[in-house]
Design goal:
Elements: H1 3-27, H2 36-55, H3 65-92, H4 95-102, H5 105-116, H6 123-142, H7 154-174, H8 176-179, H9 184-208, H10 217-244, H11 247-252, H12 256-267, H13 275-293, H14 297-309
Helix pairs in contact: 1-10, 1-12, 2-3, 2-9, 2-10, 3-7, 3-9, 4-7, 5-7, 6-13, 9-10, 12-13
């Protein structure tokens, strides 16, 4: 495997492990401590500030006005319509339902990549998506509380999360060429700036209503983790994977998040490690492997050219 692709896989693996750790931290803050809108604003403004600060110490890249417009659009699909609907939907539905809806991301990416990027849907790619999804569903449904009561607005919450998933699939597919042109710092400093500007008119009032003096030090530490680690650092890593890997492969790493969250629960004594978790993890990694090994359009075209020339 090429060195650049290994780097891409490592970046996505690290980012999604952190995302998995972030799930219980985020759920501990919404909606009891903060509304989804407030936490989203913290993430956007905090990440924007950190990316612009870091940009002062790295090589500056000139971004034409045309590309800035595209980055504003990318921020809408990749950040605003991804993060806000997910947190809002999570406040209406159960984490179980939300996780199940998220398993649709690789399916959407695979279909969109076929139409937009002309990437073939091979049997390995389709099987990989199916195998990975079955692993996640095995894990999630196995943890569904038998006596659990679904929230009254669970269907509404599921539909809102569906918007989040669809939006991120659009981002991964339609903006791949744009992402490949710039460094992660340049990309994200503009994207988070535009995302913050988009959200200010809608959610700034909610941020001003928070009683910050009443918040404990523990809450501030959790917010710091969400902003610095699960937003700034992870969004620094994701473009590394986007540049070298296909959209479906990138999206497959989302399947690791519930696996990580489940292992954290085991480590904290909140759950036990059984055959279902081991099998789920094996299926997820097998699915990622199959999608990675599936042939891209470039590979197929190269093989066709070699056959024609021989």
């Amino acid at each position: 495997m090429e060195q650049s692709k290994i780097k891409g896989h490592a970046a996505l693996l690290t980012a999604n492990i952190i995302f998995g750790l972030n799930l219980p931290v985020t759920r501990s803050l919404i909606p009891e401590t903060f509304s989804p809108y407030v936490l989203t604003m913290f993430r956007m403004f905090g990440a924007a500030a950190l990316f612009w600060l870091v940009s002062l110490f790295v090589r500056k890249e000139e971004v034409p006005l045309k590309d800035k417009g595209k980055l504003a659009l990318a921020s809408l699909f990749g950040i605003v319509l991804n993060q806000v609907p997910f947190l809002v939907g999570l406040s209406y539905t159960s984490p179980v339902d939300a996780s199940i809806v998220v398993t649709l991301l690789p399916v959407f990416c695979m279909i969109m990549a076929a139409f937009v990027l002309k990437e073939p849907i091979t049997w390995k790619k389709a099987a990989g998506v199916l195998v990975g999804a079955s692993g996640v569903l095995l894990l999630i449904l196995g943890q569904y509380p038998a006596s659990g009561v679904k929230p009254d607005n669970s269907i509404l919450g599921d539909l809102i999360i569906f918007i989040s998933v669809t939006s991120f699939a659009v981002y991964l597919t339609f903006f791949k060429s744009l992402i490949s042109r710039y460094s992660p710092v340049t990309l994200m400093k503009w994207m988070f700036l535009f995302a913050s500007l988009i959200c200010i008119p809608f959610y700034s009032g909610d941020v001003l209503l928070v009683d910050y003096a009443a918040l404990s030090a523990d809450v501030y530490w959790r917010v710091a983790f969400i902003v610095a680690c699960s937003t700034f650092f992870t969004f620094m890593l994701i473009p590394i994977g986007q540049k070298t890997l296909r959209p479906t492969t990138v999206s497959m790493y989302n399947y690791l998040q519930p696996i990580v969250a489940s292992l954290v629960a085991v480590a904290l004594g909140m759950s036990s490690f059984g055959w279902d978790k081991a099998l789920a993890a094996a299926l997820v990694f097998a699915g990622v492997y199959l999608v990675t090994k599936s042939k891209s359009r470039a590979q197929m075209e190269k093989e066709k050219a070699e056959m024609s020339g021989s």
